[in-house]
Amino acid sequence: MDVWMIVLVTLIVVAVIFGGNVLLRRHYTKKIVIAMSQEDYDGFFKVLDSSGSKLILRPSEREMMRLSAYLTLGKAKDIEEQLQLMLHMRLKKKERAAVATRGFYYYVEAKNRRKANDMIKIVEENGAPGSAKELKMIASVLLRKEAKYIKEFQSYYDNAKADEQRGMFAYLLGLQYSYIDDEKNTSRYLKEAQQLLKGTPYEEVIRDLLKERKKNR
């Protein structure tokens, strides 16, 4: 076989291997997404831990998907273990910051101030400059119950495009106004947040908050 034929065969083989990898990647990713969207978690973990997925998907990708499933299921012990596993893996800085950000929001919901702060430090060390700023602001409002960022969240609220995004900023504004006993703005922003976050877990939280404030007047 002459040299040009060897080169041609090599190129064909490489194209088949890499083309096959792309197709397999799409196949397994699609199966994983379908299982998760149907809340078929047994099927999800079966596909995720299959030899095909291990061959095609990077470990960091598979473990991030696993973390997403645990967060959706609300399995505290599994979430804690998965966060620790991922933060001790060999990850790119960007990936480590992404894991810590997911951990931050989990610990905020769990009202674990110390661990939320630990996640902020990891984002500061590994994320883009300024990437931890918003996390610090959220921790200030939700964990420390401070009203230090009304101006900043007002700007986010004014420029928000999506309803859910605008609703979250209204919620954070309403909370801050409640901390300084500004009843007019508290009521205004919390009521708007309740409407914009209809159908989310926050709707019930805000409803209870408004009822509590009404009772204590």
What does this molecule look like?
This protein has helices at residues 3-37, 41-48, 51-56, 59-73, 76-87, 93-109, 113-126, 133-142, 150-159, 163-179, 183-196, 201-215. The termini are far apart. It has three domains: 1-56; 58-144; 147-217. Mean pLDDT is 86; it is low at 6-20. It is mainly alpha-helical. It is 80% helix and 0% strand.
Low-confidence parts, pLDDT < 50 over ≥5 residues? 6-20
Radius of gyration: 23 Å
Structural class: mainly alpha
Structural domain count: 3
Please describe the topology of this protein:
Elements: H1 3-37, H2 41-48, H3 51-56, H4 59-73, H5 76-87, H6 93-109, H7 113-126, H8 133-142, H9 150-159, H10 163-179, H11 183-196, H12 201-215
Helix pairs in contact: 1-2, 4-5, 6-7, 9-10, 10-11, 11-12
Transmembrane segments: 6-24
Keywords: Membrane, Transmembrane, Transmembrane helix
Top keywords for this entry?
217 residues, mainly alpha, 3 domains, 12 helices, elongated, membrane, transmembrane
Short description:
By secondary structure, this protein is an all-alpha fold. Helices cover 80% and strands 0% of the residues.
